[in-house]
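Encode chain A's predicted structure.
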Amino acid sequence: MTQNEANSKDILVRNPDVILREEDPDGALLFNPDTNQIRVINPTGLFIWNHCDGTRDQSAIVASMKEAFDGVPEQEVDNQVQEFITDMRANGFLGVPIDPDDPSLTQVKS
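Encoded structure for chain A:
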């Protein structure tokens, strides 16, 4: 199993310290105070972000996106979700629950 395959099975959770500011229908801003980084995300990124709620893995998010956005090529959805999650995890915006059996635990690890 490759690293990407292992990561795609992880339940994804937003870093609870990250601040989301929805700007308009065109997207949002994410601010990570731990790293002082800002990300501007488009509606697709916002959709993915909102689905990283501690109950879904990457494949569930991809399935939700394919259902919500008709007519988008499947490979494009797979690639966009993978790229977004990889970037967000690498920069501390997303992680996986420290204890998957305790949904109240909000800390993340990358």
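The first strand starts at residue 11 and ends at 14.
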